[in-house]
Specification:
By secondary structure, the protein is α+β, with helices and mostly antiparallel strands. It is built from eight helices and 16 strands. About 25% of the residues lie in helices and about 25% in strands. The radius of gyration is 20 Å and the shape is globular.
Length: about 375
Amino acid sequence: MLNINAAFDSGNIDVVDASDPSNIRLRIRTDAHSEFYQWFHFRVTGMKGQPIRLVIENAGGAAYTGGWEDYRACYSVDLEDWRREAATSYADGALIIEHTPTADSVYFAYFAPYSLARHDALIADAHGHDGVSLDVLGQTLDGRDLDCLSIGEGDKTIWVIGRQHPGESMAEWWMEGFIARLTDADDTVARDMRAKARFRIVPNMNPDGSFRGHLRTNAAGANLNREWDTPTMERSPEVKLVRDAMDADKPVICLDVHGDEALPYNFIAAAEGIVGFTDKQAKDLADFLEAYKQASPDFQTKVGYPKTAPGKANPSMCTNQTAARYDCLAMTLEMPFKDNADAPDERYGWSPDRCAQLGSDTLDAMAAVIEQL
């Protein structure tokens, strides 16, 4: 018997009509106290060997409709192997997914989900390594801990944060690769960087939104990456807690890890538009970007966001706020929800494994510029 459910960690879908397997009508729920929506994650059971056609009727009103062009939905039967082989199309404001399940249960998601249980395992594994400590910076509005790992003993501080936008789960897959490389006792680059710098890492800035199945906001409906100029404990405690910690431990690098719905590339958005962007910041950025291209075949600089005009940067965004506040190398890393158009993978698209590899490669780019910061 056909059944569709999303009552689990990061689940999001409403069933409009599931009486006909060839025309299952669904709708994505909005983030709480917000009009944002695009993330979906749900399970279909009882249809092994039978073709189904899933129609997400309200896709045309999603936050970033450009994200549906050339998009292929993720699906998995074991919550580990997330594939992109289900036929996916977008027409007349609806996203249509067609698939014949090979098992009694199959999950569909906008991108491979990263559960809070997996986050807990990531934290537990990381702080079990020598020289790694865990700080709980405080609690979220739903009462969850905001975890921050500290790694290294150097006199320069590098802050790395991810998942301000909870639906951008690729950011925490990236964290797995970055943290695994940084804690590798046999990796000479990691060993050198741990001696030169202290890393403060917040793998998930928005655990409430992640669990609730939000695309972009926290439990209060706040877009955390528009809260960095005036964060409050009532509306955006996640940003307030992290920014206070940064004030006490100022970064030479602040890297904010995200995903982009529309652009099928990995790229950096920087802080060129802040008031007083310096020649030193420009050189540090250029050197980092060049080193990142050398370190990772999946990173490029030809396609990205247009540069903001001088003096026109939005100070409520993390990269702009931290660049101005700490005179540091501040950057936003964007990864695709779709695939890397420069190196497409028909089966997996831009996958968790590729996110993790990009995270691992980032350490080489940081190592290339650490002496000049």
